[in-house]
Amino acid sequence: MELMNLSCEGFLEELASKAAAPGGGGASALVGAAGVALGSMVGSLTVGKKKYAAVEADIIALNVRAEALRKRLEALVQADADAFAPLAAAYGLPKDTPEQTAHKAAVLEAALDGASAVPLQIMEKCAEGIALAEQYTAKGSVLAVSDAGCAAVLCKAALQAASLNVFINTKLMADRTHAAALDAQADALLAEFVPRADEIFTAVSGKLRNK
């Protein structure tokens, strides 16, 4: 089942079910894609307007980047579900003998690494979405500035949500050095881009409320 081929209603029904996937990672990717799409909306409403002729080339370039980013996040919705399948299978392996126990541990470690890699990619792409939202806020149509702010907020939420899907897997890794390295990558993205998204929200909120 290709998750992105489901209707909005169908995806949410699947998300709400007892099925293990889609879960938090896939939902994060979808929310991030929605945030990036809102940025594209701001760009689309800006291109062709005489008032913004001076930045039109910049906006067109942003739109190209945003479309590619949105498509990547859409693909990560399915990738997250696909990465969970080996992990679920690994948990079900027998461990009745020392050999089986060792095999299960090795398979589980590899599966945990794969299940961490996808949400980390989602985080990276949501960080890119926040960077794009900054540009759309600064250069896009003032009539759509609220949408630029929403783009940043959604990408921030997706960034933070995806981090939890990194941490739940790294917590179980036997290789603590590798786990710490993955955690450090996630922490660095949070440390840089959560404040940047908050700055966008504050700036947009101030413009809309004349503060």
Description:
Helix 2 (24-46) runs parallel beside helix 4 (98-139). 81% of the residues lie in helices and 0% in strands. It contains 6 helices and no strands. The radius of gyration is 20 Å and the shape is elongated. The mean pLDDT is 95. The chain has helices spanning 8-16, 24-46, 56-91, 98-139, 145-170, 176-209. The chain is mostly helical and 211 residues long.
Major beta-sheet overview: none
Gross morphology: elongated
Low-confidence stretches: none
Separation, N- and C-terminal Cα atoms: 48 Å
Q: Give the total of beta strands.
A: 0
Structural class: mainly alpha
Write the layout of secondary structure elements.
Elements: H1 8-16, H2 24-46, H3 56-91, H4 98-139, H5 145-170, H6 176-209
Helix pairs in contact: 2-3, 2-4, 2-5, 3-4, 4-5, 4-6, 5-6
Short key terms for the protein model shown above:
single chain, 211 residues, 0% strand
In short:
The chain is mainly α.
